[in-house]
TrEMBL record:
The name this protein goes by in its record: Uncharacterized protein
Length: 355
């Protein structure tokens, strides 16, 4: 069965929260994700509730949990037996914000945060995709489980990419090429503002991005200079293969052969959302050659991880590798499927944070 809950939810310790919901006995405790990941509920599990106490069906809410639209809260008795599941709505943009005392109002809605605000280290994460929604509790799970992060020691922000602000825009109709580029321009500017703000708070700021997020990281350096304390960029490209990038700019399907070099171009998707996400991705790479844009930039604080078998973006060319090394970046070569890049997160963070 699908691994649900399993990798996308997070609570670190048992917390007594039964009193938060009148329909949950105070004697029950909230189960942490590590426990829940080891044993998910059966498909016929009961009882399941929405936050207002309305009963739900587990099989019906499971797909929404998988899509990060509902957050599962499992309550157990003193012996750890599953007794009740509450699902919390995560689709309201107004509920997403950065919880930091001195942050300007203009930046409050630019991400989702967790961890220790008093830490002197801030990690800003850039989602892959692109997608038009921001993960919240899934981000916590990613950093705690895949990244091995102790959030008592860090303040972590999942930054909003601009297409997540008004998701209906990319679902309603096909966007123009200029609009696709504007999304990325706004996203890079948001990253610059967040880095600048936390640096003004005397924090060390590290940027982490995979896939589409790695392109955002490069664009921010190109547009606003290398201002963070370090960057971990995974499974992206500096100079994207033109044939693939051109295809994406038209909403066409495109990838690489098993050699991670030879392009394969398919048909245009009949799904508006897919077309728009491809356009936004391409707008970071079709006309942007980062070996040119960053030719005068020192990248000694950049760790760049690429895969030799990456059929989604292709592997780095010899020119790209030579460029990164000439700019003093640390280049790490792995063999992993593109979609599994989060498995690299823990080791990448160790390099980035010098742990």
């Amino acid at each position: 069965m699908k691994k649900l809950i399993l990798i996308t939810n997070i609570f670190i310790s048992f917390v007594v929260q039964g009193q938060e919901y009148a329909f949950i006995p105070d004697s029950l405790k909230l189960l942490p994700i590590q426990k829940l990941a080891k044993k998910q509920p059966p498909e016929d599990f009961k009882p399941v509730f929405y936050e207002d106490g309305t009963k739900a069906n587990f099989k019906e809410v499971l797909p929404l949990i998988m899509e990060n639209k509902l957050k599962p809260l499992m309550f157990v008795d003193k012996n750890g037996n599953y007794k009740a599941l509450v699902v919390k709505n995560l689709t309201k943009n107004e509920d997403i914000k950065i919880e930091y005392e001195n942050i300007p109002e203009s930046l409050t809605k630019s991400g989702y945060s967790f961890g220790n605000p008093d830490s002197n280290i801030v990690i800003i994460y850039l989602q892959g995709g692109p997608v038009n929604y921001l993960t919240t509790y899934g981000f916590e799970a990613l950093m705690n489980i895949s990244g091995g992060i102790d959030d008592n020691n860090y303040f972590l922000v999942n930054m909003r990419e601009s297409q997540t602000m008004y998701p209906e825009e990319t679902e309603r109709e096909e966007i123009t090429w200029e609009r696709a580029k504007k999304y990325n321009t706004e996203t890079a500017k948001t990253l610059y503002k967040l880095i600048s703000f936390f640096k003004s708070q005397n924090k060390k700021v590290y940027v982490v991005g995979g896939s589409y997020g790695s392109f955002v990281g490069l664009k921010s350096i190109a547009d606003y200079k290398n201002i963070a304390d370090g960057y971990l960029l995974m499974v992206g490209r500096l100079d994207m293969t033109q044939e693939v990038s051109n295809a994406y700019s038209k909403g066409l399907k495109a990838q690489f052969e098993e050699d991670a070099i030879t392009p394969i171009v398919g048909e245009k998707s009949d799904n508006i959302y897919t077309v728009n996400m491809r356009k936004i991705a391409s707008a970071l790479s079709r006309d942007e050659k980062y070996t040119e844009l960053l030719k005068d930039t020192d990248l000694s604080n950049v760790t760049y991880i690429y895969s030799e078998i990456d059929q989604s973006v292709g592997k780095l060319t010899e020119k790209e590798i030579a460029f990164l090394k000439s700019k003093n970046a640390e280049v790490v070569n792995v063999k992993i499927e593109h979609g599994k890049y989060t498995e690299l997160l823990k080791e990448g963070l160790k390099i980035l944070l010098n742990d």
